[in-house]
Amino acid sequence: MEMETKVTVHDAMTSNVITADPGISVAEAASIMTEKKVGSIIVKSNSEPEGLITESDIIRKVVSRDLRASEVTVGEVMTRNLISIEPDRELSEAARLMAKNSIRRLPVVRDGALVGILTSSDVMMVAPELTEILVENARIEENRVQLPENERSVPGVCEICGNFEEYLEEYDGKYICEECKEDLEGE
């Protein structure tokens, strides 16, 4: 009997994680995100991750309240109590963890130290067969919690062009990417 190779978190994660100190301002964090083209930064003061700040945290907690991004620290708005995973765990376990907690990013930690980050897009690129786990749960979650129209997006494969996108929107009963949606609306 052939031993099936298990795909691990380590196989799919990104190991050069962009991190920042909790004392920096949200404005600085935003410029790091822009410069590095990332949607989130792991916050840590020593080797251990303390939190995560994402673009949506900045919009929800700073911009929407009209606070000055240069006067708010990352530590004040970051998401704490991070759910993390070890690098040698199976990728399918990571996918279930993301789905269950409705998160798109998992810090990868070995012995308390941050060694990488795993995103839902990483999972789908390495193991497209796990997309089902991520998307099904995102849809279940979404039906349970009525989010405002513009935030009802799930990662997955567009049902029209077949591209994998981080954000799909429901349009006419199909999950499609923004470009296809614009094409349809423009018709």
CATH architecture group name of the largest domain: Roll
Mean pLDDT: 84
Count of beta strands: 8
* CATH superfamily (homologous) name of the largest domain: CBS-domain
Q: Looking at CATH, which topology of the largest domain would you report?
A: CBS-domain
Query: How are the strands ordered across the major sheet?
Result: 1-2-3
Helix content: 25-40%
For the CA atoms, what is the radius of gyration? 18 Å
| Number of structural domains | 2
Report the end-to-end length measured between terminal Cα atoms. 55 Å
> What's the CATH C level of the largest domain?
Alpha Beta
Mind summarizing the main beta sheet? 3 strands, mixed
Proportion of strand residues: 15-25%
**Gross geometry:** flat
In the predicted model, the low-confidence regions spanning at least 5 consecutive residues are 145-151
- Count, helices: 8
Binding site for Fe cation: 158, 161, 177, 180
Domain ACP-type MB: 153-187
InterPro entries: ACP_MB, CBS_dom, CBS_dom_sf, Diverse_CBS-Domain
Pfam families: CBS
Write structural notes for this entry.
GO terms for molecular function: metal ion binding. Keywords: CBS domain, Iron, Metal-binding, Zinc. Pfam families: CBS. It comes from Methanothermobacter thermautotrophicus (strain ATCC 29096 / DSM 1053 / JCM 10044 / NBRC 100330 / Delta H). Helices cover 37% and strands 22% of the residues. It is an alpha+beta fold and 187 residues long. The protein has two domains: 115 residues, CBS-domain (Roll); 58 residues, no CATH class. Strands 1-2-3 form a three-stranded mixed beta sheet. A three-stranded antiparallel beta sheet has the order 6-7-8. Strands 4-5 form a two-stranded antiparallel ribbon. Helix 5 packs parallel to helix 7. About 4% of the residues have low confidence.
